[in-house]
Amino acid sequence: MTEITRLSHLIDGKPYASASTQWRDVINPATQEVLARVPMATAAEVELAVASAKQAFSSWRNSSLGSRMRIMLRLQQLVREHTPQLAELITREHGKTLPDAEGEVARGLEVIEHACAIPTLQLGEIAENAASGVEVYNLLQPLGVGAGITAFNFPVMLPCFMFPLALATGNCFVLKPSEQDPSSTLLLAELAQQAGLPPGVLNIIHGGPEVADALCDHPDIKALSFIGSTQVGTHIYRRASAAGKRVQAMMGAKNHCVVLPDANKEQAINHLIGSAFGAAGQRCMANSVLLLVGEAQSWLPEIVAKSKAMKVGPGTDRQVDVGPLVNPRALERVRRLIDSGEAQGARLLLDGRDCVVPGFERGNFIGPTIFSEVKPGMAVYDEEIFGPVLCVIGVDSLDEAIAFINANPNGNGTSIFTASGWAARKYQNEIDVGQVGINVPIPVPVAYFSFTGSRASKLGDLGPNGKQALSFWTQSKTVTARWYEPGQGSSRVNTTIAL
After folding, report:
1. From CA 59, how far away is CA 291, in angstroms rounded?
2. pLDDT digits 0-9 by tens, 262-281
3. pLDDT digits over 185-238, tens only?
4. Would residue 284 show up in a list of annotated catalytic residues for this protein?
5. Of 160, 172, 284, 391, which is the active-site residue?
6. How far apart, in whole angstroms, are the C-alpha atoms of residue 481 and residue 442?
7. Where are the domains of the chain?
8. Under CATH, what is the fold of the domain 5-251+461-479?
9. Measuring CA to CA, how many Å separate 28 from each of 6, 72, 313, 356, 392?
10. Backbone phi, psi, residue 239, to 5°
């Protein structure tokens, strides 16, 4: 019998064997094989990780921009070289297909590459002779110790949304990855150590809600970044904010895709079903609601036929389109929501509940599922399903589509497929959603632009990546200075506010 690996924390630059009595199995979702065991950190271990980061900050904050840049340059090269290993770990523990996992690593790599430009990103401002003999300048300085809490669905990309820019700006970091698929995150952190990070600058601790709460409460953590569900994110935001921290929380979504009849039909259908069913729908940016406008409603049979032809199976098979859900609980939840859709009057056009993959009968598989005649108030519309389920709604006009989407409380992402520049411009201006794709199915911007979900999908005014992340991980300090020639200066007291 193969011995199951017991994962470690990463504290003070080296693996740290946990003394916890609580461990969780890491499961292959395609087979239910136990791959590893991950510890739920003790309170003392959380304290040790934060203390390590705090101690490292005193010297790391004074390291040169050039030295931090060179570490990021080495890290991006190491990540590039280890992409196959990272992708394999993602697929084994998450279930997404290998090509999708490789794409995830590439999107995370974008952020590291952006962090390599830190000498030109972390520039202040100066005004000479702002008043007579006075100069005013602004500094962007690190906060101290930052923390991150990430969801299971992108175990490499989401940590990259957090720690590279946090470290490049001079902060130290404590990261709690998802306990469901932590191995690729650990490998990413180990590559960061190989790139030259000093001990304590980046620490990894595993755990569940108790560890998350400890990070929210810890007085030495100055800022916290969260990506995950709305329920957990709201709790994290309120608790960490009450403890005086700067917080960003990117949360749940219900993303809509609009297809106009002038769109390129084949491209639109390929893109929309890829967005809805890729990663088995386990993306916060999945377009899980399709609005077909006018004559585009006649495309629905082709959409169903093409979705039905998608191959379901283990992510290690490069011919597979849809892998398993992450765990049996997710499988049961998606099944329950599909049941509710039928019970509440939606029309089930494609049913993936009875999906069986030969040789992987114990896997958490659900095939592409499509409902039509969906209405607000139905659970399949109101809830974020996080499974391969597409809800289709027919509307008569673009105005009707915009009004329908703007009535939904979420504002994470949306896409429109059209050949009309006028329609696209109208849509981007009138839609109340933070990230818009025009003939792009998953509108996650490149890393030097910020992730800008809005409304119920986001708490905090600064998102990950781009300029907003730079502002989030730094504090602004303004200095007003006047230097006198020795022996010179004012000969009387001046009680005015003027410079």
Report:
1. 54
2. 999 999 999 999 999 999 99
3. 999 999 999 999 999 999 999 999 999 999 999 999 999 999 999 999 999 999
4. yes
5. 284
6. 48
7. 5-251+461-479, 255-438
8. Aldehyde Dehydrogenase; Chain A, domain 1 (3.40.605)
9. 15, 32, 13, 17, 32
10. -70, -45
